Amino acid sequence: MEPRLTVPLRRIAPCSTVQAAWCADSHPPPRNPQRPEVLRRGVRLCCWCAAQAASVLGGAAAAPASESHSMVKLVSFDVDGTLIHSVGDSANKVHRQAFKGAFKQVFDVDTDIDVINHHGCTDPLILLKILEHHGVAKEESMPRLGEMQTSMLQYFETHKDEVADGVAVLPGVKNVLQELKTRSDVATCLVTGNLEPIGWGKMEAVGLLDFFSPSPFGGFGSDFCSGNTEESWRDRAELIRIAATRASHLLPNPVSERFHIGDTPMDLLAAKEAGAVAIGVTTGTYSRRDLETCGAETVVLDDLADVSQVLKAMGLE
Ligand SMILES: [Mg+2]
């Protein structure tokens, strides 16, 4: 017999809002209505509706709610200041030079990313913000974002053997990723403002690439740019949503809960906006106080050095 939803499919969408009262009428309340647990085909579902939707949507079906062990927690990591940091005189050299070359090649502007506070911004928004700083209006810079990103990627590709210069893996990162890789109830990915080839290129250069869940996947600066340089965290939130959508297509098991780990207030605000649990680390340029003011529920760690503490923050201990 054809599997059927007891809740009509068209009514699944309200699950993606906080107002889950309608679905609570037909089953027990979601374990946490504030945090929809599964992303399927672009809509977030509570755990119960996800279980019902699975048989109708097919593919990588959600498990019945009673078999929560087959669901996975999705952990997304920011890159700069979270997994790796800049060190020495050649700090983050190749990425910085890629930006510098793009400004010169496309707009004939001699500049450097340090003319603004770029921490927590996506690469496309950094390009726009710096050009604004030099008097180039967004109407002029936005249409040429593609050219600038292509320029950056060309530079990065031709200097790949230097990517590890000026970057280092932060304490505990390898141990945390290694531990998460061994767990069948966890999937890991990147959510970073880096253009995708640059993000993965850095991971490969420092020996972290193989720790992430296959394909590998994530959300990257190259995936989306609204042009909103005033609230850069909003673009990052979109990247977290994109990673969740990709997870729903790529992972064999449904996602029960999402976590995003980052070093800037923008990471934490974005996580909350996109329905993920925000975990801050003070290994970047922001203090514990800076990160804690992003919300009462925000978990802030000094770093990722204590594996058990990191696991505990995600309910994985
Ligand atoms: Mg960062």
Automatic annotation (TrEMBL):
InterPro entries, per the entry: HAD-like_sf (IPR036412), HAD_sf (IPR023214), PGP-like_dom2 (IPR023198)
Protein origin, superkingdom: Eukaryota
What lineage does UniProt assign to this protein's organism?
Eukaryota, Viridiplantae, Chlorophyta, core chlorophytes, Ulvophyceae
Its protein name is Uncharacterized protein
Question: Coiled coil where?
Answer: none
